[in-house]
């Protein structure tokens, strides 16, 4: 209930040193007398669950530039890095408390009792957040090797060993929990196959060449801009390949950060079934906007799976030019036998409808040149013929049927280079990816407050597994509560609709009696 959430939020603010009567400075006024004044600044987002928000606005993650609350009562607490990064009690620097269930900004609100199998961790310090940032080509391709026919394969023995025996582990969990209270809800994928990152952070790996968008915002030539946007889309392929699985984001989980060139990033996981994540990116000095959403789709095969981030990617420049593109599929093979291979494949299209520009290329097309490898792509940048309807699911280069005026050929490889015409636009040896810098004062729903991620990042798989199960159970309870609420709301809506219909019918009878009187 709202009152319970307010009480819990009050406890969190009290931890920060914010108490009744303190002077809170907020970036906007919120007219709501039922919520205590000292709770208002942070009650809008509580552990990913929206409690109250001013009409006309989304969550704070969707409003770039929203300022965090400030308290004159505790000036020494400057950032969320100061929150629970040291133990409340005890000598273990990684355990926040030996008497309470969770740290102050936990996603799990189901219990207040301490559980020794899943102790509350202290939050990650700033230096712990920057571990594992891959920049050079050698760092990105660590544990990977090129395949003979094109593409990449995993050669890291430790990573491959982690992914063995997953089915056996799941069967053991089923046998252990099937007759226990809670039963199958406690069956979960083991954390050893996960990397210590959330999916909301993982998607930013595609955007690590934002310098192409920044350069595009500084010119006015529409065709040249299109070429730079294509470079941005292609260059991020190789920085996004990983063999370990990211954690599935919790509904309402957010990320705030920026890239080295000043690009601001805001992400929120907005749907759990189907899994959908929305994002909003602002270029340096608001030079461009990049926004859209991804729905994660996976198709399993006998020895492989195919997945893609379905959804529009829209880049909008200040002069009104808008370019929309999509990402192709990624195929991971060798799940049971053979090389653990990684391939991008299929079509990728960029379109500017206002300026009648379009670019289409296909990775590993069936009708590619005979000497081309699987990681190579071919295509064309052109003025489109608006009288022709393009084929929606392209498979072959010859199926590109809406070309009116060809501008340039497109060619290259997602692990080497991009050429548009005779010019080299992206070179893996020349262009360096940027790195993500995390917001110093994020929302309480930020991914870094997830206990399972914290424990895995610190190398404790046992505690990470326990917290992962706790959070999954909490999510199922939240989903059940939402379904109950939705049913009650629909009943009220149906009752209201029927009441209005009856009233209209009764009013019509009265009018008839008056007319024939």
Low-pLDDT residue spans: 1-77, 182-186
Major β-sheet profile: 6 strands, antiparallel, barrel
Tell me the structural class.
Answer: alpha+beta
Number of helices: 11
- What fraction, in percent, of the residue positions are helical? 25-40%
What is the strand content?
Answer: 15-25%
Q: What radius of gyration results from the CA coordinates?
A: 26 Å
Distance between the termini: 54 Å
Shape: globular
How many beta-strand runs?
23
Mean pLDDT: 81
Strand order of the largest sheet: 12-13-16-17-15-14
Overview features:
six-stranded antiparallel beta barrel, 23 strands, 11 helices, disordered N terminus, 517 residues, alpha+beta
Q: Would you kindly provide a written description of the structure presented here, covering whatever features stand out?
A:
The N and C termini lie far apart (54 Å). The chain contains eleven helices and 23 strands. It is globular and about 65 Å long. The model is unreliable at 1-77 and 182-186 (pLDDT under 50). The strands form four sheets. It has a six-stranded antiparallel beta barrel. It has helices at residues 2-15, 40-43, 126-129, 137-140, 157-162, 166-177, 199-202, 211-217, 222-235, 451-457, 461-515; strands at residues 24-25, 45-46, 49-50, 70-71, 144-146, 152-154, 194-198, 245-247, 254-259, 264-271, 276-282, 288-300, 304-310, 313-317, 322-325, 329-333, 341-352, 357-363, 376-384, 403-413, 417-420, 423-427, 436-438. By secondary structure, it is of the alpha+beta class. Helix 8 (211-217) runs antiparallel to helix 9 (222-235) and helix 10 (451-457) packs antiparallel against helix 11. Helices cover 25% and strands 25% of the residues.
